[in-house]
Amino acid sequence: MAWIYLVLAGLLEVGWAIGLKYTQGFTRPLPTALTLLSMAASVGLLGLATKTLPIGTAYGVWVGIGAVGAALLGMLLFGEAATPARLFFLALMVAAIIGLKVTAGH
């Protein structure tokens, strides 16, 4: 169950990272409320995951999911650069996330 919590926490992190763009500096009430709710839920689920997973693994996977997801959505939604080098390094991050999962022992 901890891994499910962790993946959901990571996906919510993607949501709030992208949501930050839509808050326009926290000046838009609805996007701001949704972003803050996503932040709280993400951290809450991360906390549940760390009850049984090592903190280094849980935090690394959480940040990795958030970073990869935000970068990919930035490319899709906001036209950010999708250069071969950038995609290569995102793939390395995915490999690191998988490596942390495989070596976690849970």
From TrEMBL:
A GO term for molecular function: transmembrane transporter activity
Location in or out of the cell: Cell membrane
GO cellular component, one term: plasma membrane
Main location per the UniProt record: membrane
Membrane-related topology note: Multi-pass membrane protein
InterPro entries, per the entry: EmrE-like, Small_drug/metabolite_transptr, Small_multidrug_res
Keyword annotations from UniProtKB, A to Z: Cell membrane, Membrane, Transmembrane, Transmembrane helix, Transport
TM segment ranges: 33-50, 57-79, 85-104
Family of this protein: Belongs to the drug/metabolite transporter (DMT) superfamily. Small multidrug resistance (SMR) (TC 2.A.7.1) family.
Protein name, as recorded: Chaperone-like transmembrane protein
